[in-house]
């Protein structure tokens, strides 16, 4: 499979199924030979305040996706709003602000990715 999908997650911890599905979809696509990237935008950087905790129910899946390099970027402006800049840095995640403070779609589209939002 040669599919390339960038999953932009906008929902924060109040809607856990969206991040869970982004993790599932990205891991599944990669396992099938495709390429996936997860971008945390909107309320989603708030997840970084909880997911590093080994007791969090999605910690294991988050850890697999992170170890596989599937979490590509965290919106800097949104991380500031969520108080999650330090958490993103501690997790070694790239903070991006190339579109008026947010993550630009352009590099993903130029690289042939299909954009999906959750």
Task: Please give the structural blueprint.
Blueprint: E1 4-9, H1 16-31, E2 35-40, H2 59-67, E3 71-75, H3 76-82, H4 85-90, E4 95-96, H5 106-110, E5 114-117
Parallel strand pairs: 1-2, 1-5, 2-3, 3-4
Helix pairs in contact: 1-2
Explain this structure to me?
By secondary structure, the chain is α/β, with parallel strands linked by helices. α1 links the parallel β1 and β2. It is globular and about 35 Å long. The model has no long low-confidence stretch (mean pLDDT about 95).
Summarize this entry quickly:
This protein is α/β, with parallel strands linked by helices and 118 residues long. It has helices at residues 16-31, 59-67, 76-82, 85-90, 106-110, and strands at residues 4-9, 35-40, 71-75, 95-96, 114-117.
- Major beta sheet, strand line-up: 4-3-2-1-5
Number of helices: 5
Outline, from the CA principal axes? globular
Uncertain segments: none
- Separation, N- and C-terminal Cα atoms: 23 Å
The total strand number stands at 5
**Main β-sheet description:** 5 strands, parallel
Order of helices and strands: EHEHEHHEHE
Question: What labels describe this entry?
Answer:
118 residues; 5 strands; alpha/beta; five-stranded parallel beta sheet
